[in-house]
Amino acid sequence: MESYIGKIKEISERLLNDGTVECVVGFRKGTVALTNEPCMITKASDVQDLVWDENCRLNLANYLTGRKEKIAVIAKGCDSRNIVNHIIENKISREQLVIIGVPCKGMVDKNNPEVLQANCATCLHRNPVIYDELCADLVEEQKEVDRYEDVRKIEAMETQDKWAFFEDLLTGCTRCYACKNACPLCYCPTCFVDESQPQWIGKGTDPIDIRTYHFLRAYHCAGRCTDCGACEAACPQNIKMRHFTKKLEKDCNELYGWEAGLTVDQRPPLDSFKVDDPDKFIM
Amino acid sequence: MKVIKIDKNIWAGGIDSLRSGYRLFGPVMQGDAHEYKELTSDETPDMAYTNTRLSPKSVVFPQSEPMFTYSLDENNPEHHILKDAPKDYSPRAVIGMRPCDAKALSLVRMNFDTEEYRDPFWMNSYDATTFVGLACDSPCETCFCTSAGCGPYHEEGFDVLLSDCGDAYEAKALTEKGEKLLAAAGWTAEGDASVFEPKKAEAEAKIVCKVESSNLRGKNSLDLYDAPFWKELSFACINCGTCTYACPTCWCFDIQDENKGTEGVRMRNWDSCMTSLFTLHGSGHNPRDQKHQRFRQRFMHKLKYFVDKYDKGLMCVGCGRCVQQCPANIDIRTICNKMNGYEAAS
Amino acid sequence: MQNPYKAYPVRIDDIQVATADKTLRTFKFVFLNPEDEEKFSYHVGQFAELSIPGQGEIPIGIASSPSEKGFVMFTVFRTGKVTSHLHNMKVGDIMGLRGPLGNWYPIENLEGKNIVIIGAGFAFTTLRSTIKYLLEPENRKRYGRLDVIYGARNPGMILYKDELVEWEKRDDINLNLTVDGTDDPDWKYHTGFVPTITETQAPQGDDDTYAILCGPPMMLKFTKPVLDKLGYQADHIFMSLENRMKCGIGMCGRCNIGKELVCKDGPVFTLDKLNEMPEEDQ
Questions:
Q1: Which residues of chain B are within 8 Å of residue C276 when distances are taken between CB atoms?
Q2: C129 and C201 in a common domain
Q3: What pLDDT score does C279 carry?
Q4: SS3 sequence, A191-216?
Q5: C3 with B66: CB under 8 angstroms?
Q6: C127 and C49 share a domain?
Q7: Does one domain contain both C42 and C58?
Q8: What is the pTM of this model?
């Protein structure tokens, strides 16, 4: 994917020069191995700083929330789906954006560059779903990947084993909130963890509070999560919190035939009602 | 001070001897990284670590700590009156701590041990602890301790400093507390003090990463505060607490009451200047409402306010944890260099 | 050294609704252990943490004067979790008081000087403490001219009305009350914002005249240039600030402005000092 960068720079320079946009949101080279830093370029002469490779893990839709200017944003498949979410949820308008689509071949695992990041290995939407410019030909989408093998394994566990699995999963969580802050969906002006009237959960390291945080956050992402993997990529403790969001993603898929962020023309299932919505889980 | 040689074949036995007189803390593999924890009776510290993911600050300053208990039951004659939470300040020892982390505690002490007030929780834990250091012969590539008033053989804050010499540790007793611990472990063989200087020089030479901070003290605080680079530098920051929680010199905390039925505990929890709630007024006004304001606060505190207030250098020891763990690649080395080199337009 | 986080147990002795809109109440606390009152020896301008086990703590300026014995008084605006709870408490309830905290208005250093006290809104509490203290007969004679300018949004929001009426009758204090606006035909005092009233009513600044200010950020911001124009030197102006606080003793790290901690190095700063500190909010 390094070969994309020439084209990305060329497009960015053009958009800045002709005044189409005020800035370009992309990545610049990181100061440590296997990391790039999200950046905002405002001068055409600075487009040389832009990079693109397998270490552009963070979701750039997260950097668009509530911005007012005209922006060009570099978007791989998942970023583009979160841009769709953002448009649906009025966090940015389509007119403000020039989306520079990146046909993605997957990010590498931040701890092991020999393998793809877990979500990328089973990704079905590597190509941007919405774009104005493309920096390369679209790539072939992966076929016959089993997206939910891990979820089914957990579903098949006995209740006690499930509990133990989740308990172990969250060991080490310091509630630094890197997961929610890296997540483009988590833009609430006041997160439920910060509410004091009522105070929904305690603020310490009691395992019950840690679990409550992760469970509730996952539910807030149901039908919206694109499985971009930014949460896991951001976690300094390498906690695999996608186990929660993927289960909800699978449910949304099975119950509503829904995949988040594919179209701006349809509301997500949990903020719309249809008479024939399945309701077995309530009964 | 005395130097003792500890043959590695008597190391585990010595650790066992310490267990009766000390609560022992040390680095052990937890999941996919080393962390400090209280050792169980069958655990020995894993000395083959580069650095732990979180610093050992939690040994004296746990992430969540009870301060007081109270009863809300009005039938209790002492209801709504704060009672001291039960504490164990019996002797404890951290075995195998890096020099950066020990220096960090010395810096943090200045916050908790002041002329007017002494934080009893932090101070009692600190005073109860014997700190046994392990010098760094193989620093990480993000280490910049030598630029932060510290170094791989820095002794500040330690009671004992160990240097790994292959089959044995050479242990330099730096305080009486340290001598006492060595004696309690049964380590008495005379060591070789001459190994420290050359090994120190060798280790320091391995730290190639340099950060410039010499100009910071002389800079005008308001100039740095108003410098034009904060928005740009903070763009990538997601305002999580990763850096503050990983940092051995970050000490900010919150106080929270937690009730269960009619009983409750007043807790203190680590807090982070990266969050907006940290400074939100009751009126709704927030002096640090914006991301760049919180970001600026963190770096100004570490690299300028602290420097000015105490005149003891940076509030950073160069451990590199924040650099390694930041999800967005915010790099304190870059920011320090930028601040150090900044000249306000006159 | 005693644990600085541990609150003295107190009993609520009196509760008065302080404003017409009932958003402020004045509480008088009595120490359960009389020796704690000795330890809680305070100066005008200091604050304390009102500590309600099960709810939390809030830093509030002390409204009583050190010359008033047997109780400590606070006037509290209902806004968050702890203050809402406090507003629902009743006389006789037990809670905690931690302090006194912070520095104070340095009136000991101002003997023989003229003092102008300027306040607005809920922040009049520590100024009430100061005025009350200065008006004690043994204190009043030690100072020169005393001017007070106090503004509220409307007449119903004025704190300590009965006392103000008494003070107005005295000839050793020049009291200037103002409201932002009112349709009350009987309102016989000023109408207008504090900075404007200050401009016309405050004495000229000179070597022997000092100003003490406490109020919302906007009032402070716009009163500063007025005092400057009136000739007050920056080291003759004392301002009391507020910020979110938890520990109140300079340790928890959230209330700093530059390297100064509002809870411990403040809350009172000279304008001189403030000019060296960054303006947060930017």
A1: 221-222
A2: yes
A3: 84
A4: CHHHCCCCCCCCCCCCHHHHHHHHHH
A5: no
A6: no
A7: yes
A8: 0.95
Q: What is the DSSP letter of C231?
A: T
Answer whether A178 touches B (CB < 8 Å).
yes
What's residue A1's pLDDT?
A: 73
On whether both C177 and C233 belong to a single domain, the answer is yes
Amino acid found at C141: K
ipTM of model over 0.90: yes
Domain extents in chain B: 3-72+87-206, 216-341
Burial annotation B213-228 (CB, 10 A radius, 16+ → b, else e): beebeebebeebbebe
- Per-residue pLDDT tens digits for A162-195: 999 999 999 999 999 999 999 999 999 999 999 9
| Amino acid A283: pLDDT | 59
Q: Which chains pack against B, by 3+ Cβ pairs within 8 A?
A: A, C
- Across the interface, whether the CB atoms of B254 and C259 are under 8 A apart is answered no
First to last CA, chain B: 52
pLDDT at res. B42:
93
Chain B residues in contact with A172 by the CB 8 A cut-off are 30-31, 35
3-state SS, chain A, equals: CHHHHHHHHHHHHHHHHCCCCCEEEEEEECCCCCCEEEEEECCHHHHHHEECCCCCCCCHHHHCCCCCCCEEEEECHHHHHHHHHHHHCCCCCHHHEEEEECCCCCCEECCEEEEECHHHHCCCCCCCCCCCEECCCCCCCCCCCCCCHHHHHHHCCCHHHHHHHHHHHCCCCCCCCHHHHHCCCCCCCCCHHHCCCCCCCCCCCCHHHHHHHHHHHHHHCCCCCCCCCHHHHHCCCCCCCHHHHHHHHHHHHHHHCCCCCCCCCCCCHHHCCCCCCCCCCCC
From C58, C81, C101, the end of a domain falls on C101
**Could you tell me the CATH number of the domain that includes residue C95?**
2.40.30.10
Q: State the CATH number of the domain containing residue C175.
A: 3.40.50.80
Q: Total domain count for chain C?
A: 2
- pLDDT of B283 reads 86
DSSP secondary structure string for all residues of C247-271? SSSS-S--SEETTEETTTT-SEEEH
Structure letter (DSSP) for residue C107? G
A197–C84 C-beta distance less than 8 A = yes
Is residue A274 pLDDT above 80, yes or no?
Answer: yes
- Give the pairing type, strands A23-29 and A71-75: parallel
CB contact, 8 Å: B221 with chain C?
A: yes
Average pLDDT over residues A241-251: 96
Distance of alpha carbon C173 from its chain centroid, rounded? 18
> Looking at chain A, which residue has its C-alpha nearest residue C79?
A197
Residues of chain C found within 8 Å of residue B287, distances taken between Cβ atoms: 243, 257, 280-281
Structure tokens at C252: 């928890």
Enumerate residue ranges in chain B where pLDDT < 50.
none
Domain boundaries, position C87: 8-101
Whether A234 and A182 have beta carbons less than 8 Å apart is answered as yes
For residue C281, which residues of chain B lie inside 8 Å, CB to CB? 287, 289
Angle at C214 between CA C211 and CA C218, to 5 degrees: 110
Last residue of one domain, picked from the residues C41, C75, C101? C101
Structure-block tokens of residue A47 = 């487009």
- pLDDT average per 10 residues of sequence, chain C (282 residues): 92 97 97 96 98 97 96 96 97 97 96 96 94 96 96 95 94 95 91 95 95 92 95 96 94 96 96 90 55
The whole-number pLDDT of residue C281 equals 59
Q: Are C6 and C57 in contact (CB under 8 A)?
A: no
